[in-house]
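for the writeup, i need someone to sanity check this before i put it in the appendix. the sequnce is what the collaborator sent (i think, or maybe the updated version? ugh). structure was predicted straight from it, no edits. if anything looks off just tell me and ill rerun, i have time this weekend
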Amino acid sequence: MSITTLVLGQSGTGKTASLRNLDPAKVALIKATEKPLPFRAAGWNQYTTDAWAMMIQAARKAVANGKEIVVVDDFQYLMANEFMRRSDEKGFEKFTEIARHAWEVISAMSALPVHVRVYILSHTQDDDYGRTKIKTIGKMLDEKITLEGLFTTVLRTQVQDGNYQFRTVNNGSDTVKAPMGMFDDEIIENDLAAVDQAVCDYYGITQQQEQSA
């Protein structure tokens, strides 16, 4: 079982930029939409697909080829793009299928080898009660599955005085959470390399384990 982390935030608040200090040689970057990275991207290879089965296949192949970190960017478009392609379909069955496809991706990522860390980046939305959660395609999907419930760690971006940060503690109206003691501070820099080091330290993932797993 891999270690999966959900990173939530509005567009432009530093989700993708948080990849900047990761070693691209160790990372499989899978994107649901095609767009340039928001930092100098030397050495980065990107695979773009919004097809759930191909996303799973790409992650498994990358890990088999030695990648130890999988990043899925713009995850919400996995759902939104399928919904738009199927917008002419009548009935509610498509919502169940779209929910299942999102669940299939997260489940497959969670089933990768134990040394692998997976980071799924997605936009947020506010529900009718003012609670901030992962963006889906509406109430029909939300009734089928609570995606945050599939993760032990959920981080959320924020921007304060020009500083791009991650929140690690729930504020009472969002879905942020982290294991006790994983992070020393409630607010940390939006640096996914530092987050990954904290994950490795917390779960005892070492270089020797990575090479032998």
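Residues 208-213 have pLDDT under 50 and may be disordered. Helices lie at 52-64, 76-85, 93-110, 139-144, 192-203, 207-212.
thx in advance!!
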